[in-house]
Amino acid sequence: MSLSRRRERVNRMRDMAPVEVSRAYDELMRPAARAYDLMVSKIKRRAPEASAVLDVGTGPGFLPPRLAAAYPSATVTGLDVGPEMLALARQRAEAAGVSDRVRIVEGSAYDMPFGDASFDLVVATSAIHMLDDLAGFIGEAHRVLRPGGSLVVIDQRRDVALPVYAVCWCSTFALRVFGKDVDGMGPVIDACYTRDEVGSALADAGFATHEVRAGLLVLEASARA
């Protein structure tokens, strides 16, 4: 591996499906669960109201219970491809006491098992760096959104300053050295998309409006159908 800023193709959602990888990811992310509270705050600022919410790449389900609390009148759907991840997400929803409003569904981000105009909010947090076909996902998000509905994407970005890039790359290397199986999980900076790549995909999908903001490491994108 080199500091080439090429996307790392091993880091994809289907690589998360094996039981051992799913459980390792759940263990790795549990101490960082509070970061999801911040993500929900950012989502709420961009979409204050929602009645049907879809969380794409829900993983072990840290976000759906928080979305259910943030939108108390909404139904929340978590979508992922790995049965083990889905099981963890269902357990997390039950433990939070929101399983009556949270459903966890197996399916692809490129071919979502939902009808047109099914949701008024679609979110993807720390997920698009696991997608080979960003345009395919964003096109599907546009399809399942109701007119006027919102897409919110929060993820790391690849087009960062070289010192930040080096730190991120080394963090993944350190995880491998200490025996964590990260072939299916982040942070892998080479797998991330740039601000321009995300902006172009949103524009091409036909959203009425879109905006992409870039911070030191993270990009936040929002679009309205």
Give an overview in words:
The chain has 225 residues and is an alpha/beta fold. The protein has a single domain, classed as Rossmann fold, CATH 3.40.50. The protein contains seven helices and seven strands; from the N terminus they run ααβαβαββαβααββ. The chain has a seven-stranded mixed beta sheet with strand order 3-2-1-4-5-7-6, with helices on both faces. Helix 5 links the parallel strand 4 and strand 5. The chain is globular, with a radius of gyration of 16 Å. The termini are far apart. The relative contact order is 0.18.
Share of residues in strands: 15-25%
In the CATH scheme, what's the topology name?
Rossmann fold
Number of strands: 7
CATH architecture: 3-Layer(aba) Sandwich
Radius of gyration: 16 Å
Shape by Cα distribution: globular
The number of distinct helices, counting runs of at least 4 residues, comes to 7
The end-to-end span amounts to 39 Å
Order of helices and strands: HHEHEHEEHEHHEE
How confident is the prediction overall: mean pLDDT? Answer: 85
What's the SSE blueprint?
Blueprint: H1 19-29, H2 34-46, E1 52-56, H3 63-70, E2 75-80, H4 83-95, E3 102-106, E4 119-125, H5 134-144, E5 145-156, H6 162-177, H7 195-205, E6 209-214, E7 218-224
Helix pairs in contact: 1-4, 2-3, 5-7
Features:
225 residues; alpha/beta; Rossmann fold; 7-stranded mixed beta sheet; disordered N terminus
